[in-house]
Design goal:
heterodimer; A: about 425 residues; alpha/beta; FAD/NAD(P)-binding domain; Immunoglobulin-like; 3 domains; five-stranded parallel sheet; 10 helices; about 20% helix; globular; B: about 475 residues; alpha+beta; D-Amino Acid Oxidase, Chain A, domain 2; Arc Repressor Mutant, subunit A; eight-stranded mixed sheet; five-stranded antiparallel sheet; about 30% helix
């Protein structure tokens, strides 16, 4: 079997597939996608609800339908992919290529090589243990995504009386899903004073089913030694500490956790990729290239997205850039830093090469809290590149600012992204 | 009539079964849980202690040192994880005489390789120790061990040598009969010439079924926090604290799996089932752990848990024939019980032999083939294994690199796993940073297929209703 490639893409989910298509469409033919599951599509395969593809296809698709469009394209373009293949290690080699060690039933334990590697491994859910909720460790406590997989792909009935901690999108989707499966969802508790899920999911998945969203609340105790019997939910103060005496007992057999997603960057770290502690994803430049030459990152392994359409768009760019890298090597030139200020938690990219700007440059970021009538400001030194007023900005919605080449052409100072709040 | 019934399939029960299975005896182990290693054995510090803690002359001292000596060879022959990683006892006080007391005690107990080093010397070999450390006792023979794998290995070895295991079987009473006992369970009676009580925190309850002398076992709660695998270990030795007025202190240690473990607290409770963690307990672990070691990655906790130590009243292990002839207690087996387990097994066999004379088997098997740990193999070994069985080419647990082949082996082998926790303890699947988020659906499907039940009916732990008769 062939073992040397121009581009190896790790992950065959929405990011990996779009990256492959992007590379192929940019003229690169020597590509291999490595996917750990038995089908392409990644997490989309278990997202059987609709709402995918509004930006990409102008229609509302289910997760599997959205994935299938991309998988069809991958097959149509003749891009090779290998399934049930787990990459265990990526190592930069002295000649600039990367060694990719993998395990698969088909190949055994082998090491492939590639000029460029695209990291597209996605993310995982924050588990109960990482939340430090006291109490027992019974059966019946699942992360929302695990429950989603059991219900939607394994056809299992997960529980009948449900409490959900965390208002991430998967938790909200599962509140509706469990209700449709005949379960009763008593409440969704959210530690923060705002939801971490999309507004549309709160309306369509909670409000439409009369499921209460308890903001500034958390689970403080878990009861039941072997099987879950119930949880105590308490209100929290402004420091997110439970308020004594506010505990309410909710009998339940299922507790779903939707308390954050963590990019799966163990492979990246192992390869020497620098990780941004704010996103838990790689630091990348505007080409989505990491600190290691020829190693690119895109999708949820780079930073957690709320819409798959944004993942696809970003990953296509990563693919095209990797193809360009294979042809021309790393672009030299002047790089300016992208820094963040008031109200902005992080930005992707963290560097922009102003000597080799593409037609359009994306700056993606999230805000740190709920802001009303604030303005997004992008500045370089004294020069204001962008000012955009927004009626409402929330942390659950990733912002995507697209700048034309001429806006950044002669920028030399660091670019700062921040919010200007209205004076009350 | 069975020769020996052992009540309790924890480290002590299984080690004793293994020891007795060397002889021409019929042995039966009973446990109320669906798997071995479900009580105190599954939630502790996982240390093979050197033996300097116990008072010279006690059973604890003797059996600890003997157990520590036996452990390395057992780990090799029975294939369970064991690493002699050394330990330090830290002293934060300028007066370091407490360390001398420990060293002398250890030497009286026959512990080799003890020395006292300065705070700077300690920091030179463990750079993350805090500046408050004044001196330390270094113990070269201290080790870390996988308590699950150890106990499962003992059980599988005992089984291979003819011991019977009746799991999901709860003892409801014991009656004295001619030449022995009738052990009553929820699944019928078993008559035995001798009974060994290795019931952990329930040893007092079992004891009182036949004996008129009082025995009280108090569960002592210990809370722990387990942190994600580390590429550069925060500490490589087990770090104890010298007990102070503030209490016994907690330890920070690497585990055999490469995680960092901190704990335990020590709170005596009444409820023998109360393995819940508390926010006070976890706060205490964090606060006290940070006294010894700086840069403990508290933000990378992947799980926390509570274990119950079975504490007797004398301060020593209670291992003796009771007032009921032929009924033996192995009670109050708190720390260093895990280390002592194989030595307790030897000692109990000696006690039992005085009651029922027995002779060695000629065909005793002293080795065991463990579940292959794919993650620990070289690429060549992996490649060969996958060619033999493609199930080893399918990774199920991403965090710990556990393959379908390993999970199938864990389920299909004798005394195999029937629950998710059972799979976890045999293979490591689900022990990682995602805490079984990705692998549990696949493990559930594989278990369900083996047991012929629905996927959603697969238990995390505990007893299947169909097993209760």
């Amino acid at each position: 079997m062939k073992s040397d490639y121009n581009i190896i893409i790790i992950g065959g989910g929405p990011a990996g597939m779009a990256a492959a298509i992007g590379a192929k469409e940019a003229g690169e033919d020597d590509i291999l996608i490595l996917e750990r599951d038995s089908v392409l599509g990644g997490i989309l395969n278990q997202c059987i609800h609709n709402g995918f593809g509004l930006h990409t296809f102008n229609e509302e698709l289910t997760g599997p339908e959205y994935a299938e469009r991309f998988a069809d394209k991958v097959r149509e373009l003749g891009i090779p992919f290998e399934l049930e293949t787990m990459v265990l290690d990526v190592t930069p080699m002295s000649d600039g290529r990367k060694a990719v060690s993998l395990i698969s039933a088909q190949r055994g334990a082998v090491t492939l090589t590639a000029k460029a590697v695209i990291l597209a491994m996605g993310c995982r859910e924050r588990p109960r243990g990482a939340l430090n909720i006291p109490g027992f460790r019974p059966q019946g406590v699942y992360t929302a995504g695990t429950a989603q997989k059991l219900v939607n792909l394994e056809g299992a009935q997960v529980g009948k009386e449900v409490v959900i901690l965390g208002s991430g999108d998967i938790g909200l989707i599962m509140a509706r899903r469990m209700t449709l499966e005949g379960a009763h969802v008593a409440a969704v508790a959210e530690l923060m004073p705002y939801s971490s899920g999309l507004k549309r999911n709160i309306v369509q998945c909670l409000d439409d089913y009369g499921i209460p969203l308890l903001l500034s609340h958390t689970v403080v105790d878990i009861k039941g030694k072997e099987k879950l019997e119930g949880v105590y939910i308490a209100e929290v103060d402004e420091n997110r500490k439970p308020i004594a005496g506010s505990e309410v007992y909710y009998p339940c057999d299922t507790l779903l956790l939707s308390c954050g997603l963590l990019p799966e960057n163990e492979l990246s770290s192992g390869a020497g990729v620098e990780i941004d502690p704010r996103t838990n994803g790689a630091f990348v430049n505007d080409r989505l290239e990491t600190n290691i030459e020829g190693v690119f990152s895109c999708g949820n392994v780079l930073h957690v997205h709320d819409l798959v359409d944004f993942v696809s768009e970003e990953s296509k760019r990563a693919g095209a850039n990797a193809a360009l890298y294979v042809k021309e090597g790393r672009k030299g030139g002047r790089e300016v830093n992208v820094t963040v200020g008031n109200g902005v938690r992080y930005s992707v990219p963290s560097k922009i090469n102003t000597d080799a700007l593409p037609e359009l440059t994306h700056i993606r970021f999230r805000v740190t809290g709920v802001y009303k009538d604030a303005s997004i400001i992008i500045k370089s030194g004294e020069r204001e590149i962008l000012r955009r007023k927004s009626r409402i900005l929330v942390p659950s919605e990733m912002l995507d600012i697209i700048l034309k080449r001429d806006k950044l052409a002669d920028v030399t100072d660091d670019i700062n992204v921040y919010l200007e709040e209205v004076q009350s | 009539m069975t020769d020996v019934v052992i009540i309790g399939a924890g480290a002590v029960g299984c080690a004793t079964a293994m020891e007795l299975s060397k002889y021409k005896l019929s042995v039966c182990v009973i446990d109320k849980e669906s798997d071995v290693c479900e009580g105190t054995t599954k939630a502790n510090s996982a240390i093979a202690h050197a033996g300097f803690d116990a008072e010279p002359g006690t059973l604890k001292a003797r059996l600890n040192v003997r157990g520590s000596e036996m452990m390395e060879e057992l780990a090799r022959k029975l294939q369970f994880a064991y690493i002699r990683n050394e330990a330090m006892v830290l002293c934060f006080d300028e007066d370091t005489s407490g360390l001398n007391v420990l060293k002398e005690r250890g030497e009286k107990n026959g512990v080799k390789g003890l020395s006292i080093i300065s705070g700077d010397e300690a920091r030179a070999i463990e750079p993350n120790l805090t500046d408050e450390v004044q001196a330390a006792l270094l113990a070269k023979t201290s080790a870390i061990v996988c308590p699950f794998e150890m106990t499962i290995a003992f059980a599988e070895n005992a089984f291979a040598n003819g011991a019977e295991f009746r799991l999901s079987t709860e003892v409801t009473g014991i009656e004295k009969v001619d030449n022995g006992f009738k052990v009553k369970t929820n699944k019928g009676d078993i008559e035995a010439k001798a009974v060994i009580n290795a019931a952990g925190v329930y040893a007092d309850k079992i004891h009182s079924m036949v004996s008129s002398t009082p025995l009280k076992i108090t569960p002592r709660k210990g809370e722990y926090m387990l942190m994600d695998k580390e590429t550069v270990p925060t500490v490589s030795r087990t770090i104890f604290q010298l007990p102070t007025k503030m209490g016994k202190g907690i330890l920070v240690t690497p585990t055999v799996h490469g995680n960092l473990l901190a704990g335990p607290t020590a709170v005596d409770i009444d409820d023998k089932e109360n393995t819940a963690t508390t926010s006070e307990g976890l706060n205490e672990v964090r606060a006290k752990g940070s006294l010894s070691v700086k840069n403990v990655p508290w933000g990378k906790v992947i799980t926390s848990f509570t274990g119950l130590r079975a504490v007797g009243e004398s301060g020593d292990f209670i291992i003796e024939e009771s007032d009921a002839e032929g009924f033996f207690d192995a009670a109050g087996i708190e720390s260093p019980g895990l280390t002592s387990a194989p030595a307790i097994g030897e000692y109990l066999a000696e006690l039992v032999s005085k009651r029922i004379p027995f002779e060695k088997k000629a065909d005793y098997i002293d080795t065991r083939q463990g579940v292959i740990h794919f993650a620990q193999l070289t690429d060549e070994q992996r490649d060969e294994l996958i060619k033999k069985d493609p199930a080893y080419g399918r990774i199920v647990c991403r965090c710990c690199t556990v393959t379908e082949g390993e999970i199938l082996d864990a389920i299909n082998r004798p005394l195999g796993a029937t629950t998710l926790d059972g799979v976890k303890r045999r293979t490591g699947a689900g022990m990682g940073r995602c805490q079984a988020g990705f692998c549990s659906p696949t493990s559930m499907v594989l278990i369900a297929k083996k047991l012929g039940i629905k996927t959603e009916d697969v238990l995390k732990n505990g007893v299947y209703e169909s097993e209760v008769r």
